[in-house]
Amino acid sequence: MAALTGAAGAADRTLIALIADEDSTTGLLLAGIGNIDQHGKKNFFIVDSKTPTSEIEASFLEYTSERKDIAILLINQHIANKIRPIVDKYTQAFPALLEIPAKDHPYDPSKDSVLRRVQKLFGE
């Protein structure tokens, strides 16, 4: 019965969440990922140079722990680096965590927590 409950829970996860800079957020919102629910909660969080790390952490924890409608969490890699200890501790299957590049910050595979775990599994 627990497997059925897990499957039903995964079926409820229909949104992509985003923690990113303004340019990445604008592009993905134009692509149609934006959602604001009946309580006014958004599935995206825009980070700029003045955003405190505590707000980024709170947003990450909301999307990964509290929200049960998020299937995938996209986060700019340079923003993930600001909260790297929390990102590295995250091991849940849902929401899936994907680090993405930003316009001014190219992707660095050596910093990607998921890729490092996969390499560790294969002994690389």
From TrEMBL:
Signal peptide range in chain numbering: none
SUPFAM superfamilies with a match to the protein in the record: AtpF-like
InterPro entries attached to this UniProt entry: ATPase_V1-cplx_f_g_su, ATPase_V1-cplx_fsu_euk, ATPase_V1_fsu_sf
Alphabetized Pfam families for the sequence: ATP-synt_F (PF01990)
Presence of keyword Ion transport: yes
A GO term, aspect molecular function: proton-transporting ATPase activity, rotational mechanism
Keywords tagged on the record: Hydrogen ion transport, Ion transport, Membrane, Transport, Vacuole
Known role: Subunit of the V1 complex of vacuolar(H+)-ATPase (V-ATPase), a multisubunit enzyme composed of a peripheral complex (V1) that hydrolyzes ATP and a membrane integral complex (V0) that translocates protons. V-ATPase is responsible for acidifying and maintaining the pH of intracellular compartments.
Protein name as annotated: V-type proton ATPase subunit F
Natural source organism: Tilletiaria anomala (strain ATCC 24038 / CBS 436.72 / UBC 951)
